[in-house]
């Protein structure tokens, strides 16, 4: 049995629609007028299975991918069919592992010359150059060269040192997905000015994340967008900001009723006995819990059974939840926790709003105990 076979011995699973991801990628590129896509597949492709997702994107011509860590980069290198695939690492990485980055051709985001000094020593002589993604901090405050001089200095240093080669230059927007247009404009202007003054050719630039590609396409200024969220088909912005592109959700979450039983009026369910039946009622138990990423704050959330809306009642436990049933159902009946059932739909945005968080966080918390069934 494969690992997935073993995981599906419990009838709880996530479905990933690769066609939806391919369609979203092409639609967003068209909307933003982009020629190239850097597909952000960090954190197991936002929980969707990085192997399946990166290979599906490869099929439609994507050749650049972004991850967050060296581990993710090395793993992804093994999944990609050809050596010319480019892998960018967006977070700060320890320079002491620069030799591994050369071996696996991973392109680290770098914002300081000290990092380059240390990496040059680690890499030694006679190796292929390490491609550097010059990080420019224009207002995100996480990492990167944060002045005109610093950008220029970094670029000159990369050009002059045989250990390095420029792979790209980028910045990250803090407010592309909300209403703070002035802050966005400030970041964009700083990036454009600093990078132009440093003399870095445009083909190296990339800045647009999902929010930027959706809501600021006319301001992107580069041929390349660097997006994650929209690929997976969710709206990265505040709920009241509508997406101008119709996105197709890629993830679904399903389970099957494991127990169906009747509560008598006055009886309670789950830890803390927080839910008590007001009258006799049917309930069902599902084999999914917070250890799968169906977090406790999803208590009270709706689920879909045979096209009807039912609700999670009582506290969510580590491995099981209890749902209300407006009529008795067969054990084994499919329950939709995320996705479509008949004319009803639960979106990841709905779950996030209910739990007081964002879709990105919920998706990346879906745990390895949930098998990803690739459609
Ligand atoms: C995660 C990340 C992205 C992708 O952001 P989305 O809003 O999901 O498109 C792009 N750039 C950087 C630097 C990131 O860290």
UniProtKB/TrEMBL annotation:
Keyword set includes Isomerase: yes
Active site: 42 (proton acceptor), 271 (proton acceptor)
Sites where the protein binds substrate: 142, 318
Listed Pfam families: Ala_racemase_C, Ala_racemase_N
Entry keyword set: Isomerase, Pyridoxal phosphate
CDD domains recorded: PLPDE_III_AR
Residues in Alanine racemase C-terminal domain copies: 250-375
Catalysed reactions, as listed in the record: L-alanine = D-alanine
EC id: 5.1.1.1
Gene Ontology molecular function: alanine racemase activity
Cofactor needs: pyridoxal 5'-phosphate
Family: Belongs to the alanine racemase family.
Functional description taken from the UniProt entry: Catalyzes the interconversion of L-alanine and D-alanine. May also act on other amino acids.
Name used for this protein in its record: Alanine racemase
Taxonomic source organism: Eupransor demetentiae
Lineage: Bacteria, Bacillati, Bacillota, Bacilli, Lactobacillales
